[in-house]
Write a structure and sequence with these properties.
With about 290 residues, the chain is of the alpha/beta class. It binds adenosine monophosphate, fe (iii) ion (2 copies) and zinc ion.
Length: about 290
């Protein structure tokens, strides 16, 4: 007899529409298997996976609630920071234009990246990568995988360390939306802007405070305090900080399937995550 009430969620999940290895349909089944009550699909710069997950959940009569989301790569003082938009309207014209514009830029960048990888001794074309990953917004993780599959590197990590990392010989930078514009864009699409994985940027405490103050000025509403690999004390620090700034607490694993194999949907790396459904009510999303 199953009398357990499952009340856990995951608000940061990637599908094959960006750089995850599970399709949006797979994610709905996986969330069901893991007894998660809700997941947010938050692909990089793309909302196509949201629509597919919503239809999959509906046609399967799934009990998993799908929260529409996106993860925007934005610029703050020359650094790349990630802003999640939770509960966004995935049909809003502003987000669709953003997606289209940045997709075109990525296509140009991918051609350059393919040329550099070829010059480094691993022949590859942008067309071939597109065929290998149908429907994905292509970026470095896909190129890393192709390099591994061709036997040019032994792991995804090695591809980044030796070639694709920010200082690597095959790296091509790309234009980013400013952090303030990213917040405005998300708000225009009824999304709630959330600062993703705040410790990933390796900022001092003071700089992180100033980033949060700055973003709050542009409508930041939440902070991702529960995150894969964060220690209990990291998570407590972030929750205190969120409360001080009047931000809601968000939590997600950043699941990417086999592209980040140590991370499990809903529970993180060592089972450190237990993200309660009540966060969604506190955030005003449910
Ligand atoms: P892109 O948007 O094409 O520049 O690719 C960025 C994505 O590559 C990030 O979202 C990560 O998933 C992945 N990535 C970036 N740096 C690394 C790294 N050093 N090792 C593994 N994955 C990385
Ligand atoms: Fe990613
Ligand atoms: Fe991120
Ligand atoms: Zn992510």
């Amino acid at each position: 007899m199953d009398t357990i009430i499952h009340n856990f969620i995951d608000l940061h999940v990637h599908s094959t529409c960006s750089d995850g290895t599970c399709t949006p349909e797979d994610l709905v089944s996986l969330a069901e298997e893991k007894h998660l009550r809700a997941i947010a699909i938050t692909d990089h710069d793309c909302v196509s996976g949201v629509k597919r997950a919503l239809s999959a959940a509906e046609s399967a009569g799934s009990s998993v609630e799908i929260i529409p989301g996106i993860e925007i790569s934005a610029d703050w003082q020359g650094m790349e920071i990630h802003i999640l938009g939770l509960d966004i309207d995935p049909w809003h014209s502003a987000i669709l234009s953003y997606q289209e514009e940045f997709l075109k830029e990525r296509e140009e960048r991918n051609k350059l990246m393919a040329e550099r990888i070829t010059a480094a001794g691993c022949p590859v074309t942008a067309e071939e990568v597109q065929e290998r990953f149908p429907g994905a917004i292509l970026g470095r993780p896909h190129y890393a995988r192709i390099m591994m599959e061709k036997g040019f590197v032994t792991s995804l990590d090695a591809a980044f360390k030796q070639y694709l990392g920010d200082r690597g010989p095959c790296y091509v930078s790309r234009r980013r939306i400013s952090a303030s514009d990213a917040c405005s864009l998300l708000l225009a699409c009824k999304g709630k802007p959330v600062l993703a994985h705040p410790f990933q940027y390796r900022l001092s405490k003071e700089r992180l405070e100033s980033l949060v103050d700055y973003l709050k000025g542009f409508g930041l509403q939440g902070m991702e305090c529960l995150y894969s690999g964060y220690s209990p004390s990291d998570m407590t620090k972030l929750q205190d900080m969120a409360k001080r700034h009047g931000l809601f607490i968000s939590g997600g694993s950043d699941f990417h399937g086999d592209n980040k194999p140590s991370i499990t949907l809903g529970s993180g790396i060592r089972g450190e995550l237990q993200i309660p459904y009540s966060l969604l009510t506190d955030a005003g999303i449910r």
